[in-house]
Amino acid sequence: MLYRPGERTESVWFPLLGVCTILAELDGPAVEVATVGDEGMVGLAVFLDVGSPTEPAVCQVAGRGLRMEADRFRHEIAVPDGQLQQTLQRFTQSMFAQLARNAGCNRSHRTRQRCARWLLMTADRMHSDQFVLTQKFLAQMLAVRRSSVSEVAGALADDGCISYSRGTITVLDRARLEANACTCYRVIREAIDATFPPAGKET
């Protein structure tokens, strides 16, 4: 748990590897509303100076990252037109894009499409085609039952996209997996790349 709603945020985090998740705690199990990897930070409430966060944030796929005390962070972004402030403004816009797409995606797209999108985003943030991911966690992220996750993962494996063994996902054919994903993956990926353009594509 990185922070809880209603509590003072003492630190902000900059993931270098791994996946952090912003959750919506509903009447039932918590549901993912956004994820953060090495493209951004966890603790936007501090950056936006809006007081305590309204939703919890957790580290869902283990990795590594940097932590900065909130007071030090406020000092750093107080520099007028500073590079950190400008970068985080772009990241905030990419988060808005992700939130909008997630809201529409969870309502309109099939579980198989959403699962493929989530696996692609996780592979991107882990910088690896192999990562640890339990069915319980994936079910929470997709807001479905574990039996549905098992069915979808099996279908993607049968299609040659992935292999899944003992909680470890291996992406076997990225192009085929992206073909199974909804268009939301490409939209979110492009929003993230606009925040941190890939090497050779800086604007």
Structural summary, described in words:
The termini are far apart. The model has no long low-confidence stretch (mean pLDDT 88). The chain is globular and about 55 Å long. It has a three-stranded antiparallel sheet. Strands 4-6-5 form a three-stranded antiparallel sheet. By secondary structure, it is α+β, with helices and mostly antiparallel strands. Helix 4 (111-126) runs antiparallel to helix 7. The protein contains eight helices and six strands, in the order E-E-H-E-H-H-H-E-H-H-E-E-H-H.
Throw out a few tags for this protein.
alpha+beta, 6 strands, single chain, 203 residues
Q: What is the number of helices? A: 8
The beta-strand count equals: 6
Computed CA radius of gyration, to the nearest angstrom: 17 Å
Low-confidence stretches: none
Structural class, by secondary structure, is alpha+beta
Sketch the major β-sheet: 3 strands, antiparallel
Please bin the fraction of helical residues.
Answer: 40-55%
Query: In terms of quaternary structure, what is this?
Result: single chain
Strand content: 15-25%
Order of helices and strands: EEHEHHHEHHEEHH
What overall geometry do the principal axes of the alpha carbons give? globular
Mean pLDDT: 88
Kindly report how far apart the N and C termini lie.
36 Å
Query: Order of strands in the sheet with the most strands?
Result: 2-1-3
